[in-house]
């Protein structure tokens, strides 16, 4: 029983429908995947400058020089990857935990000033970062004096309004009745959150984890601002060092981009099971 | 943990500083008063930070070594170099400047100096730089590091923005490039020459006479390079009146259009970027390209080697190219004035007034980076001319492989370098920069794309200039 | 039975005020220090001629100057046009794709999600290089080759003011919808089967199920994507910055780019702050309308 008809008894109809769907999806996928394809094939080119770049769909020459170049370019290549991994993991865990808590509170718990506070959060989200960046920099570097530390990289991203908003929107569709039942059975709010909300929100939390990790992993500007030694840089900051005076070492940069994208593939597929259907309210009720 | 270390370190530093202060007191009593002060201050520990982009391809690899050499030279001083890419370092520096805590030294184009002076964050080193240091530099590039009466750092190199030609194509088109290198050419001669460079297959152009990178903000370079040779070396004339309202400006705009309408330049010029035009040059799709830097000769040579090696690593479809340095044509009988870029090590200050000792140390570090061996190696990597005596001396022993004609041509152009204009007040300069970004560049892009006429652009620029600088603040002729 | 009859009605648990504050405490502290503080600073700066060594109070000058500046208005119009052309289309595309992925088996679902999400993983630089190639103005450019196939002359995509905005919009249509697709899918998978079961007993068609179950159930998600999409689009400047630099003739200058230029290129930080606050106000009003319009029967 679902949105789509099961076509019970019409196996052929089902297959035809799915085939049509797959073809449409594949066509759209081609357009989307193209830049990635380009990224990967150019990473196998020679480490030449971008001015001398030639665009081609099929690599004329396969060489792993760029990957070697990337790791030999700086003794810190591996360190950059580890830094990124550490920062992104901490930020992801704290976001999933704190944003889901806040999202739950904003959607299901009645307290004074709730709407006002939430509106305030949203308004802050609307101020472009170009303007808040300098005050934030002053705060971290001049007031807290923690530049070039992991704290500086992690603290500002501990909980984002985006994630609170996301959690709130999803949790608002969990029927309140379920929660009330639990309360009647003597659960306190924390138990409700832990035993009912979290399991019911697995899907959105997995989505949040992926998005947050990705975002943190890809952030360039903030880590670039607050780090000033190579050993504290993240992979994105390190990668940018491939861009030289009037030219760019193109293939190694693409190799770096491919390397930096790898953990994302792994994360994506390892979180897959949480994306799968099954953690719905009905399942819990039943 | 890190935080604790930091506290510990600052306590240590403080203790050291205090003990050195007391040492200072005692030594003062004993030693002769005349030189004790300088002795002591020179020994105090100090750290200088420098934010440096990859000035040359090999530059950033040498940071560790530079830090070490500097420390060997001045055992009490530590040089901390932060690497940053060209594209991003301005943003980092600007954030730091806005926050009131910039590095001591940053490598930037001299054109950025007025902007930072306006923020009050530059360090005037006129009194701190020793006469020997100042005397080491050629006069023209050093002037570029000045504003008003202040000196704000040391120049690293002065590069000529010229044009680059394909030797074989030039000769096929019957252009006497050696003569052009020596005597220059007028825009009319240039126009005829690039017409001859065009090769057509049917109604499709397979080779253009001239391609300049004008996509996005690069169009600014194109205009500026031409204006220098049209009697407008700067946005303001010597009476500090805005120059781009003169009739000559209109004439240059007309010629920009004419070169495209002739078919000598592609009609899609407005979205040709630096990478694209270099690719067109190497693949024989254009005879002349711009802007041309001395180092392009090197890039072309490297590609030629790859073609010879036949391992498929050369630029796809490229042909062997002998790169020829060419001057920019002159307009309306005005003299040839090469557009130059002077970049250098600019000195900054924080919100707190720096001590005299720290100032002296910053100058030492800036001079260390911008002279002698360091400057010589970097400039050789870039094929850039040396602008310090010490650099020239250090370079004598370094081998360099380049075309003698090109070297001579560049030297001629350097002789004709447009002089710096430290007399332009920062507020006028700031207005002109804004005018350039918000009016001139957007309109120029439209002109190149064939969407407005030269006259329309001229009128827009003129009325915007009158609005910004007043009727009396602009050139009228 | 009343509970079952109105399963979507949400009531909050009462008398838990203390818990509420406890649950948002950490988020609120982080927010206050790292977001609210900079925002308040920006607000103060918007009334100043900002200099690191000491700012001067200038009243509403920064605001007045901005409103008098024709470029500010032009960039606002550009931003609105860009937003109208991109955000709704992005929602429709990602909704459509999510719906299409739904009936497939788990392996295929995963594969397609991964594919659509990949561009977000790739570095922005790689993407912009590819797009420059697609928009290459010469007849050899990818898009121009497609046009050439139909006998149309090559276009100067990014270099002409008639096509540059369209080019940026096209770029947004075809590049990453991954985030929205994933969020939509998560929401789709969260719809309780019992709704479909009930509908099927009534003999509801696919269209009916879509209209009466899927769309209402996805309202909170759509609202989220719409509001964040509009916020993102109003602040966009990366694409214009990398691809066109705002040109030609300011045809693609967005407010985000203008604010960036004011803050850093010209060091008119006060003006940048003032313009940001105006921008925030505009986005705020638009979001409010969205909440009123979309959030009518949804809890927010």
UniProtKB/TrEMBL annotation, chain A:
Q: Where in the cell is it found?
A: Cell membrane
Q: How does it sit in the membrane?
A: Multi-pass membrane protein
Ranges where the ABC transmembrane type-1 domain occurs: 81-271
| Pfam families listed in its UniProt record | BPD_transp_1
Keywords, ordered alphabetically: Cell membrane, Membrane, Transmembrane, Transmembrane helix, Transport
Question: Which parts of the chain span the membrane according to its record?
Answer: 20-40, 80-106, 118-144, 150-171, 192-214, 249-269
| Principal localisation | membrane
Q: Which residues form a coiled coil?
A: none
The family classification in the record reads: Belongs to the binding-protein-dependent transport system permease family.
Q: What is this protein called?
A: Carbohydrate ABC transporter permease
* Organism expressing this protein natively: Paenibacillus profundus
From TrEMBL, chain B:
Pfam families the UniProt entry points to:
SBP_bac_1
Q: Would you indicate the residue range of the signal peptide?
A: 1-25
- PROSITE patterns assigned: PROKAR_LIPOPROTEIN
* Entry keywords, A to Z: Cell membrane, Lipoprotein, Membrane, Palmitate, Signal
What PANTHER family does the annotation carry? Answer: ARABINOSE-BINDING PROTEIN-RELATED, POLYGALACTURONAN_RHAMNOGALACTURONAN-BINDING PROTEIN YTCQ
Q: Quote the protein name from its UniProt record.
A: Extracellular solute-binding protein
Extract the Gene3D superfamilies matched here.
Periplasmic binding protein-like II
Naturally occurring in which organism (per UniProt): Paenibacillus profundus
UniProtKB/TrEMBL annotation, chain C:
List the membrane topology term(s).
Multi-pass membrane protein
- Localized where? Cell membrane
Q: Which UniProt keywords apply?
A: Cell membrane, Membrane, Transmembrane, Transmembrane helix, Transport
Show the stretches that span the lipid bilayer.
21-45, 80-102, 114-134, 165-189, 210-234, 272-294
The name under which this protein is listed is Sugar ABC transporter permease
Q: Does the keyword Zinc-finger apply?
A: no
Q: Which family does it belong to?
A: Belongs to the binding-protein-dependent transport system permease family.
Domain named ABC transmembrane type-1: which ranges? 76-290
Q: Which residues form a coiled coil?
A: none
């Amino acid at each position: 029983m679902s949105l789509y008809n099961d076509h019970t008894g019409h196996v052929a109809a089902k297959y035809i429908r799915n085939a049509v769907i797959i073809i449409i999806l594949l066509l759209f996928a081609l357009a989307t995947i193209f830049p990635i394809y380009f990224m990967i094939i150019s990473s196998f080119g020679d480490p030449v400058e971008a001015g001398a770049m030639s665009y081609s769909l099929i690599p004329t020459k396969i060489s792993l020089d760029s990957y070697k170049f990337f790791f030999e370019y700086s003794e810190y290549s591996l360190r950059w990857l580890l830094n990124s991994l550490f920062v992104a993991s901490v930020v992801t865990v704290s976001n999933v935990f704190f944003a889901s808590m806040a999202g739950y509170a904003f959607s299901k718990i009645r307290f004074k000033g709730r709407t006002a506070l939430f509106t305030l959060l949203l308004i802050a989200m609307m101020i472009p970062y170009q303007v808040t960046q300098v005050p934030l920099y002053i705060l971290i570097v001049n007031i807290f004096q923690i530049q070039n530390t992991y704290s500086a990289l992690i603290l500002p991203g501990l909980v984002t309004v985006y994630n609170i908003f996301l959690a709130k929107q999803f949790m608002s569709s969990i029927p309140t009745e379920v929660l009330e039942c639990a309360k009647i059975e003597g659960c306190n709010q924390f138990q409700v959150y832990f035993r009912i909300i979290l399991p019911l929100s697995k899907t959105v939390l997995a989505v949040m984890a992926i998005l947050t990790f990705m975002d943190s992993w890809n952030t360039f500007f903030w880590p670039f601002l607050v780090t000033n030694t190579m050993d504290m840089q993240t992979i994105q900051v390190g990668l940018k060092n491939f861009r030289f005076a009037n030219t760019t070492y193109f293939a190694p940069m693409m190799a770096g981009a491919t390397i930096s994208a790898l953990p994302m593939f792994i994360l994506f597929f390892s979180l897959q099971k949480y994306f799968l259907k099954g953690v719905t309210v009905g399942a819990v009720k039943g | 943990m890190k935080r604790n270390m930091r506290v510990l370190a600052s306590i240590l530093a403080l203790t050291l500083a205090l003990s050195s202060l007391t040492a200072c007191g005692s030594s003062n009593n004993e030693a002769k008063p005349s030189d004790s002060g300088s002795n002591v201050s020179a020994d105090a520990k100090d750290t200088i930070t420098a934010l440096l982009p990859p000035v040359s391809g090999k530059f950033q690899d040498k940071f560790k070594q530079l830090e070490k050499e500097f420390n060997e030279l001045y055992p009490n001083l530590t040089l901390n170099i932060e690497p940053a890419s060209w594209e991003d370092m301005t943003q980092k520096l600007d954030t730091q400047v806005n926050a009131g805590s910039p590095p001591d030294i940053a490598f930037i184009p001299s054109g950025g100096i007025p902007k930072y002076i306006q923020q009050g964050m530059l360090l005037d080193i006129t009194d701190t730089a020793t006469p020997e240091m100042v005397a080491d530099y050629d006069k023209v590039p050093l002037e570029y590091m000045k504003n008003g009466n202040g000196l704000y750092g040391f120049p690293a190199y002065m590069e000529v923005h010229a044009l680059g030609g394909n030797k074989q194509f030039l000769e096929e088109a019957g252009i006497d490039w050696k003569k052009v290198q020596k005597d220059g050419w007028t825009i009319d001669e240039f126009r005829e020459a690039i017409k001859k460079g065009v090769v057509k297959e049917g109604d499709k152009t397979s080779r253009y006479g001239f391609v300049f990178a004008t996509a996005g903000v690069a169009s600014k370079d194109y205009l500026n390079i031409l204006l220098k040779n049209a009697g407008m070396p700067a946005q303001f004339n010597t009476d500090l009146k805005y120059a781009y309202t003169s009739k000559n400006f209109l004439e240059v705009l007309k010629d920009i259009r004419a070169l495209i309408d002739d078919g000598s330049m592609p009609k899609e010029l407005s979205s040709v970027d630096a990478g694209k035009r270099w690719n067109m040059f190497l693949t024989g799709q254009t005879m002349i390209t711009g802007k041309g830097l001395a180092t392009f000769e090197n890039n072309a040579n490297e590609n030629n080697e790859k073609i010879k090696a036949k391992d498929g690593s050369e630029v796809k479809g490229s042909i062997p190219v002998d790169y020829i340095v060419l001057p920019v044509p002159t307009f309306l009988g005005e003299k040839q004035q090469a557009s130059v870029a002077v970049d250098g090590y600019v000195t900054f200050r924080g919100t707190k007034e720096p001590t005299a000792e720290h100032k002296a140390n910053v100058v030492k570090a800036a001079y260390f980076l911008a002279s002698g061996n360091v400057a010589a190696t970097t400039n050789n990597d870039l094929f850039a001319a040396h602008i310090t005596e010490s650099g020239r001396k250090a370079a004598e022993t370094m081998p360099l492989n380049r075309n003698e004609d090109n070297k001579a041509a560049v030297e001629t152009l350097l002789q004709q370098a447009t002089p710096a204009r430290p007399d332009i007040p920062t507020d006028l300069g700031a207005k002109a920069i804004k005018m350039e970004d918000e009016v001139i560049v957007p309109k120029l892009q439209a002109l190149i794309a064939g969407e407005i006429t030269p006259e329309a652009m001229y009128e827009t620029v003129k009325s915007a200039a009158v609005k910004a600088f007043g009727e009396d603040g602009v050139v009228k002729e | 039975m009343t509970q079952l009859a109105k399963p979507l009605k949400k009531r909050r648990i009462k008398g838990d005020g203390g818990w509420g504050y406890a649950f948002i405490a950490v988020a609120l502290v982080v927010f206050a220090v790292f977001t609210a503080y900079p925002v308040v600073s920006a607000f103060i700066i918007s009334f100043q001629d900002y200099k690191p060594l000491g700012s001067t109070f200038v009243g509403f000058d920064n605001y007045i100057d901005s409103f008098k500046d024709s470029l500010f208005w032009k960039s606002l119009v550009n931003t609105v046009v860009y937003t109208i052309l991109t955000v709704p289309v992005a929602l429709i595309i990602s909704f459509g794709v999510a719906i299409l992925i739904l009936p497939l088996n788990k392996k295929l679902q995963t594969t397609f999600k991964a594919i659509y999400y990949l561009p977000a993983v790739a570095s922005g630089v790689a993407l912009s290089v590819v797009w420059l190639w697609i928009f290459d103005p010469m007849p050899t450019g990818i898009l121009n080759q497609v046009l050439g196939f139909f006998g149309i002359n090559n276009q100067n995509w990014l270099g002409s003011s008639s096509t540059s905005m369209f080019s940026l919009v096209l770029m947004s249509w075809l590049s990453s919808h991954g985030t929205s697709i994933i969020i939509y899918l998560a929401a789709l998978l969260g719809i309780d089967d019992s709704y479909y079961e009930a509908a099927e007993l009534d003999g509801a068609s696919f269209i009916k199920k879509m209209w009466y179950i899927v769309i209402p159930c996805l309202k909170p998600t759509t609202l989220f994507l719409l509001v964040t999409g509009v916020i993102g689009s109003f602040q966009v400047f990366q694409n214009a910055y990398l691809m066109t630099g705002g040109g030609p003739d300011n045809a693609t200058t967005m407010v985000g780019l203008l604010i960036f230029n004011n803050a850093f290129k010209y060091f008119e930080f006060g003006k940048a702050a003032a313009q940001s606050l105006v921008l925030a106000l505009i986005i705020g009003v638009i979001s409010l309308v969205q909440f009123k319009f979309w959030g009518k029967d949804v809890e927010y």
